[in-house]
Amino acid sequence: MSEEKKKIAEKLLEAQIEFVIDQATNEDFENLLKEEINHFYDEIDKLTLNDVVTPGQIKEVIAKYAKEMEIHGAVPELMGEIAKHVYNHPAHDEHTLNDILSDEQFKEVLDKSLEMEEFRERLIKQAISNPVYAALVSELLYNGIKDYATDNAVTKNIPGASSMMKLGKNMMNKAAPKLEKVIEENVKKFIEKNANSTLKQSEKFLTKVLDNEKISEISLEIWDKAKVKKLSSFRKVVSADDIEDFLVLGYEFWKNFRETAYFNSLIESGVDFFFTKYGESTLTLILEEVSIERSMLVDDAMRFAPPIIELLNEKGILAKVLRRRLEPFYFSDTTLAIL
Length: 339
Known about the structure:
mainly alpha
């Protein structure tokens, strides 16, 4: 009797495997998907985010994949190879900057940037207070004074004045070889000592000159010249090796950054905020909020599922999976007792 039951169980198992494969491979598969996705939406409309997952679980997943998971060296290497391939793509020779950024989009970005007047003024102030800028101004002033002393209207218009200046300089160098250097140093010190007032005037000048209208005018002029250039022309500025180096630097930065307490605090705060806002919302509402619709799920399922299922069926893998999952049920003592 037991052997007879096992034969019946075997037939039932084969029948179910055949039934499932037929469902997954026939022309009505799309309707089956639509039906199941509709049932899926009906069920998740009754569940909230807090019902199915906790903030702690999400944080653990992020910690695992963003903080703890080792990134193999082949990953940045592959990214570098892809970057080089894309860098040399012929499309860069066919398209201009204007093809990817319209005049309207550039104008919108520019207008938004111009609204940040406080940021611009702070940037000017920080730049001018930089010692490098002060040194630059001092050097410009010194060279201007020096050039004027040797090449001005007087020396140009009075016959022999230029020669006399050179002669006097030569005689002074012979009489006191270090005097010219001392004068140069003292003039520079004087300029640097009195540079504060000059820098303040410079700040006022830049703040006044770099107003919204002027910046907009300059920016639009630059854009008009740049937008018609082929994207490949920018290779002169950034090489393929530069791209690869930046990827390596970005990779190293990410490895260190993800270990910082700052990164961890941002993750904690972001997850907590999301659950505060959506914890009691239904899963249907959350999917709608992120623009995932039923039709999208059906489209993507039909795009990937049929060819994958067909391949698994052709290779005999699908039948093996179904048998592996169902066989323990059909040959269990409980099922055989029912039969």
